[in-house]
Design a protein that fits this description.
By secondary structure, the protein is α+β, with helices and mostly antiparallel strands. The protein has one domain. Helix content is 41%, strand content 24%. The strands form three sheets. Strands 1, 2, 3, 8, 9, 10, 11 and 12 form an eight-stranded antiparallel sheet that branches. A hairpin with a 5-residue loop joins strand 2 and strand 3. The chain is globular, with a radius of gyration of 18 Å. The two termini are 26 Å apart.
Length: 229
């Protein structure tokens, strides 16, 4: 974790501000992403298009019509209780580079924009999963690869995601339905909609390289993906 964090700070991130976007998925998609790398990769592509477009549109507000942004996504596979919870930690440069390579800060997202972004992500991720044949009407397809080939492992995954004995049944609930403390909410640069949650409050200043390294290290034990937009 320490070596990876040092590499990102020393060799990948330019000296610009970085915002962390943490995206979590509903239970059924956590189950699917836990073993289906193609579905996970497609979801990441969809999510990054939405977030990159947010930054590009921010640049256009400042008159920059040809701009680029970039990010590193750290894919975590566990939650606070070591339960199975595949989710994204997206570290985005908080702005855009123009044609001449000059960096332009982006205005911070508003609470309403976070709600709009998570709703858009939800719609587009589910659409991509249905087109890929991995889900059907929001549920994991009956041809579930893991359940058919390794039913015991599928049961274990389901139980870990739900943090309780799932009695041999695959994850079939959307989001956290049935847990009353989880209700749709929005505010403080965070929003939760039908099992999808997006948090974007953490921002590291350009000169705070130690803070950036700590942020990268705290998202360790993960896979990484470099994205340009």
């Amino acid at each position: 974790m320490s070596d990876a964090a040092a590499h990102l700070v020393d060799n990948v991130f330019p000296i610009v501000p970085v915002r962390q976007w943490v995206l979590r998925f509903p239970y059924n998609l956590r189950y699917l992403f836990s073993y289906n790398k193609k579905a996970l990769t497609k979801a990441l592509e969809v999510v990054m298009r939405v977030i990159n477009r947010f930054y590009i549109n921010r640049g256009k507000l400042r008159g920059e019509t040809k701009n680029r942004t970039g990010s590193v996504t750290l894919i975590q596979r566990f939650g606070g209780s070591l339960n199975l919870n595949v989710h994204f930690h997206i570290l985005s440069i908080d702005g855009v580079f123009d044609e001449e390579g000059m960096f332009k800060d982006a205005l911070a997202p508003s609470n309403d924009e976070i709600v709009s972004l998570v709703s858009k992500i939800k719609q587009r991720v589910f659409r991509a999963m249905e087109r890929g044949g991995w889900i059907d009407h929001y549920q994991v397809n009956e041809e579930d690869e893991l359940g058919l080939e390794y039913p015991g492992l599928a049961e274990s995954y389901s139980s870990s995601i739900l943090r309780k004995n799932n009695q041999g049944k695959r994850v079939e609930c959307l989001g956290k339905r049935g847990e009353s403390r989880w209700v749709p909410f929005a505010g403080d640069l965070c929003s939760y909609v039908d099992g999808f949650s997006l948090h974007a409050k953490v921002r590291i200043n350009a000169i705070d390289r130690k803070g950036l390294e700590h942020l990268c290290r705290s998202s360790g034990n993960c896979e990484s993906s470099l994205e340009n937009g």
